[in-house]
Amino acid sequence: MAFAAKGRFFAAVATALIVTAGAAQAAAGCGNNSAGFSTWVEQYKQEAQAQGVGSRGINALDTVNYATKTINADRNQKSFKYSLDKFMQVRGGQTIISRGKAQKAQNAALFANIEKRYGVPAGPLIAIWGMETGFGSFMGNQHTLSAVTTLAYDCRRPEYFRDQLNAALKLIDNGTLAPNAIGAMHGEIGQTQFLPLNVLRYGADGDGNGRIDMVRSKADALASTANFLRGHGWQAGAGYQPGQPNYGAIQGWNAASVYQQAIAIIGARIDGE
């Protein structure tokens, strides 16, 4: 290759590297409002591909919009600032206990199978199920992928939610999540409100039909929740109140201490402790 040609070749390579680096930096950026969101999404497609996301997941990004309601909810999470008594009142703790006991009786075989498989008794699973969605009665009204993509773009916790976004796109790739799926404000999915990465890691086929459906199958949702707790150190037969071995697994479910305590209290009442 002639010197002049070599010069042009290396200049072209340098230019390509600069453009690629610039795109990567732009994709790695963030924003605190909708300005720039659409451009960021287009640039993020390259990063998603590098993370192993396939064409179905990449194409799903064409359906997203900046989720203003998600941002507003993220900025105003007040319930975790309550006292335990106030939190139990707001979340309807006594109602969950009452309804939870009925759910345990009605689904005795399911909970027995889950405990045999994962070592987790019915009480804490039902407590989570009741507090998260009222036993599947309301699982959210936000476009899941828009919520997760918006939080991945937002400057508050971008790295955390970029992992969630990549997971959501992979769930779309494998057919577990529909591109138009509806869920909670932060992208939580199904009857016990799993974030996408947790569906990938802990999603379980609780009803034996060969697929994981966190929305329509309570067996899948509850088995996945038990699998999550086991994955966070749950020991079969050990206690789950504060100071006992399994309380750490409950802490893995939610970072708010009032939420952790509520799970332990409600679960114990349902289990008859």
From TrEMBL:
- Taxonomically, which superkingdom? Bacteria
Residue ranges that the Swiss-Prot or TrEMBL entry lists as coiled coil: none
Keyword terms of this UniProt record? Signal
Per the record, the GO terms for biological process are:
peptidoglycan catabolic process
Using the record, list the residue span of the signal peptide; answer none if the entry has no such feature: 1-26
Every copy of the Transglycosylase SLT domain together lies at 37-240
Name of this chain's protein: Murein transglycosylase
Species whose genome carries this gene? Phyllobacterium zundukense
Phylogenetic placement of the source organism: Bacteria, Pseudomonadati, Pseudomonadota, Alphaproteobacteria, Hyphomicrobiales
